[in-house]
Amino acid sequence: MENKFNELGLHKEILNAILEQDFTAPSQIQEKAIPLILEGKDLVGLSQTGTGKTLAFVAPVLQEMEDDNYVQAIVLCPTRELAQQILVEVKKYAKYLPYVKPVAVFGGADMQRQIYSLKRGANFVIGTPGRLLDHINRRTIKLGGVRFAILDEADEMLNMGFRDDIEEILSNTPKERQTTMFSATMSKEIMALTKKFMNSPIELKVGDQNATISTIKQTYFITPKDKKKRALHALLKELPKGKTLVFCNTKVMVDGIQVYLRKMGYDAMALHGDMPQSVRRRVLQEYRDSEGGIMITTDIAARGIDVQDILHVINFDLPQNKEYYVHRVGRTGRAGKTGFAWTLLNTKDQIRDLKQIEKNTKSTIALGNLSLDGINEIPEPRQEKPKGHNLNVKKREQRHIGSRNFNATEEGYRPTVRSRFTKTNGIQIGEDKKYSKNNRFDENGPKIQGRSRVVMAGSSKKGTKTQTVRTIHKSKKQNNRPQNDYQN
């Protein structure tokens, strides 16, 4: 079969690596961008997600790299997962270029290992802005020889507050470098950045901005908020088996949905930013290796995470940023394959927002019916009673002792009772000899029965002894009354 990548001017070594990935025809963004980058042009590429932007900038940069150990190319991206994914792609296409030594640097990973890898002669560096800037400040990486600077998902990096870091990093590179930006969307802030750091950039727009891929069938359901988990369970039961991504807006919700689905018998995984990097890497790899796995995640997986053969994307929550709908849905239907996107809505505002997304993306999002018959809600687990001081026990004891002593006192008299959990340090309080069950009065007035836990002093070796004994307590009100009021 003829490989149409031959027409793009790529060298044999790179073409062989591409052919091994079963790619025989370039996508639109690859077909238009690769020749321009090979010509040395600065480029702003606008293309919807899932169209092969990574290969579009990796292949021509690899071809122009020299056999040397200084840093020649840098790629900036918003997340650790995307940095790792680009590293994998660079290694694939540089398979027959042994002098290319790519390294990924990002937060959450061991700094010393990254420094060691950089010192071994890394010449293609992929990283998140914060960690790359950290290496610059530590002087463990020098960008004086950079010839190629690529910003992937540039709008997302700005949304995450990386503008100052990006500007400082680019300021540390030579002005003669070739700069390329790729993104699914492009904001005015990005355009301002291009004017400052790019040399007469060519704007390359492929497809409609914010448009979702035509091979994705999109459906939404209306369900009460308190039944969304049941609706998710009902939906998963009806869907054809295949890799599924479930998007939530918060990390707490991700964990909650994972617990719920596991109770319902699903082998569900979770991925969010609070997880250690080693755990995130393991979860992502397990999900890639699974045949029909379910992963619940935040928008950390919405941009640039390349997992093959995702069949279903479920929006358990409608994204707060409408642009993220495009990125979430774009995780399926990649490379021309069919995909499905499902969204659960529970308010009129969400329905209105989805209709606006439908209009902006020029797509069709159909209303579906979802039956909850036979889907029972899991009862909430009973909470264990707290140990130690229990106010309910105290109240019951007070009511018991109060009612027991109330008849023996003057009408309207309300006793003061000490809890049996009260700790009294010092001398043990013994039984009052004048107290009797039949006679609750003595010369000083009525006595109120109660209990105290008394701490007995002991030696330092034996520790402290605790003993519960009967005590006799006077009411505070009793002490304020004349003794004559209590005489028989």
Write the layout of secondary structure elements.
Elements: H1 12-20, H2 28-38, E1 43-47, H3 53-64, E2 73-76, H4 80-93, E3 102-105, H5 111-119, E4 124-127, H6 129-138, E5 148-152, H7 154-159, H8 163-171, E6 178-183, H9 188-197, E7 202-206, E8 216-222, H10 228-238, E9 243-247, H11 251-263, E10 268-271, H12 277-289, E11 294-297, E12 310-315, H13 323-329, E13 339-345, H14 348-361, E14 365-367, H15 391-406, E15 423-425, E16 441-442, E17 445-446, E18 448-456, E19 465-473, H16 476-479
Parallel strand pairs: 1-6, 1-7, 2-4, 2-5, 3-4, 5-6, 8-13, 8-14, 9-11, 9-12, 10-11, 12-13, 15-18
Antiparallel strand pairs: 16-17, 18-19
Helix pairs in contact: 2-3, 3-4, 6-8
Please describe what this structure looks like.
This protein is of the alpha/beta class. The chain has 3 domains: 26-206, P-loop containing nucleotide triphosphate hydrolases (Rossmann fold); 216-367, P-loop containing nucleotide triphosphate hydrolases (Rossmann fold, 3-Layer(aba) Sandwich); 391-486, no CATH class. The protein has helices at residues 12-20, 28-38, 53-64, 80-93, 111-119, 129-138, 154-159, 163-171, 188-197, 228-238, 251-263, 277-289, 323-329, 348-361, 391-406, 476-479; strands at residues 43-47, 73-76, 102-105, 124-127, 148-152, 178-183, 202-206, 216-222, 243-247, 268-271, 294-297, 310-315, 339-345, 365-367, 423-425, 441-442, 445-446, 448-456, 465-473. It has a 7-stranded parallel β-sheet, sandwiched between helices. It has a 7-stranded parallel β-sheet with strand order 10-11-9-12-13-8-14, sandwiched between helices. α3 crosses α4 (80-93) and α6 (129-138) crosses α8 (163-171). It is globular, with a radius of gyration of 35 Å. The termini are far apart. Mean pLDDT is 79; it is low at 401-443, 445-462, 468-479 and 481-488.
